[in-house]
Amino acid sequence: MLVDVRDTYWRSAIETIRYLTGKRVTHAELHRWKSKPGNNDDWQMVASWSMELGRPTTYEEAREAFGKFYWGTDAQPGNVLREKIIVPPAQIRKWAARFELNLFTGRNRREFRYTFSKWSGTAHFKTIVTMDDVKKMKPHPEGLYKILGRRDPATALYLGDNIDDALAARDAGVPFAAIIAVGEHNYRKRAAAFRELGAIALLPRAIDVNKLFAIHRPGQPRAR
Q1: Both 41 and 145 in a single domain?
Q2: pLDDT tens string for the chain (224 positions)?
């Protein structure tokens, strides 16, 4: 949504699987796993994937191995250095002038701070919920409940790019718009899954939500 994770989280997952199992895997296989509920947590995904490939792996072991590639080691720079925020701060400011902005991310606090602490757009988010702030991560909607409080879920809009985002939004009763571009891996299957879960729109990029705002001016929803 806000960050291009192809060379960070995705690369780290593929490298971790090779490290744990000795097997080379593809981006197509990665996206097959990412499309399964419960795999918004990359450590859980890596543990399950490694198990399927015949290498028993605990959650803690997957987390430690993943960190070697994401954060790096004394001998090897981490993929985190490749992080690239893709939504301009100016756009965030424009949204914040019209809506209350909040963030429910699958990152933990350390990962979030590393990438977003110096980004000027961060200051415009009222509430930021990371995996360290909830007992149950996506697809459980706990993070959305923390943001909503007692407010009507129908007045919000949640943007997300994976199946766990859609499930969390559905269970919280929050309208959901999926970020998915034509040409992405398994586009048709993923797009169909998002529609089945009630996505009100499929948008190629996060900034394309402006098209929704232009259409739904009366009773403008709050952006999440």
Answers
A1: no
A2: 899 999 999 999 999 999 999 999 999 999 999 999 999 999 999 999 999 999 999 999 999 999 999 999 999 999 999 999 999 999 999 999 999 999 999 999 999 999 999 999 999 999 999 999 999 999 999 999 999 999 999 999 999 999 999 999 999 999 999 999 998 888 999 999 999 999 999 999 999 999 888 876 534 444 44
176 lies in which domain range? 87-223
CA dihedral 71, 14, 161, 7 (to 10 degrees): 50
Number of folded domains that form the chain: 2
Give the integer Cα–Cα distance in Å for 3 and 83: 7
Residues 102 and 172 in one domain: yes
